[in-house]
Write a sequence for this structure.
């Protein structure tokens, strides 16, 4: 029996539905879902709490050795983030932490700090990992790579509904401006920018319902793995 597992990489801009769909796909396939954005959000929260300026790269780098970041998975596969032992899963979802996550994720030392943690997860089980650089940097040998995208207006609308659902105040026009600003920052940063891996399958879900998007991705994955090709089994 080989110890190598299957890995599915889902990359794409913010609000494309990566986390929700990956979670649903992971359940259908019996894989572990790893939301890597949550790890950057945890570093962003730590910097925000310490009152460091978003532009202060050296200051952010300096706190990295003080951060013990861990992931814990519930029985339902839900991912919790622990920052120095404290469960920050709810707090990292605050709207203002998105900008912090984007700022810290542009710092090479932060990406380096988190790289091995992400790769280790994929060495230990079948994973569906979503982020921005999973297919290009973190898991370049992933069995399936999907670049999930949708028009900014669609993505902003979904994000807006999500925020309302969580009881947060939001204005759709502002959410759209934030989505566009984050796209710009995530695509144009020097280190591990958001880009499509040459061997990624593109899924544009503009105008699709969640169920339609889910069915599209499930089909892409099953086709790529080969029907009955071992989804859920070890290689
Ligand atoms: O997916 P998200 O919105 O939770 O991600 C938060 C930020 O983290 C986003 O601005 C991009 C960044 N990120 C990244 O640079 N690389 C990843 N693999 C995942 C997220």
């Amino acid at each position: 029996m080989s110890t190598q597992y299957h890995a599915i990489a889902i990359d794409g801009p913010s609000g494309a539905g990566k986390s929700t769909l990956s979670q649903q796909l992971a359940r259908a396939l019996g894989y572990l879902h790893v939301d890597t954005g949550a790890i950057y959000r945890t570093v962003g929260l730590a910097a925000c709490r310490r009152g460091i300026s978003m532009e202060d790269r050296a200051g952010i780098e300096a706190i990295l050795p003080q951060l013990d970041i861990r992931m814990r998975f519930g029985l339902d596969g839900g991912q919790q983030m622990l920052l120095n032992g404290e469960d920050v899963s709810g707090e990292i979802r605050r709207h203002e932490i998105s900008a912090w996550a984007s700022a810290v994720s542009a710092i090479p030392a932060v990406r380096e700090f988190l790289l091995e943690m992400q790769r280790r997860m994929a060495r230990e089980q079948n994973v569906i990992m979503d982020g921005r650089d999973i297919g290009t940097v973190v898991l370049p040998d992933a069995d399936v790579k999907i670049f999930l995208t949708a028009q900014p207006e669609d993505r902003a609308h979904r994000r807006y509904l999500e925020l309302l659902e969580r009881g947060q105040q939001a204005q759709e026009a502002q959410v759209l401006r934030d989505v566009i600003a984050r796209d710009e920052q995530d695509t144009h940063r020097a280190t591990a920018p958001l880009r499509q891996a040459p061997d990624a399958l593109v899924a544009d879900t503009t105008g699709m319902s969640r169920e339609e998007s889910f069915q599209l991705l499930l089909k892409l994955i099953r086709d790529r793995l080969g029907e009955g090709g071992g989804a859920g089994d070890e290689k």
Q: What stands out?
A: Residues 69 and 202 are 32 Å apart (CA to CA).
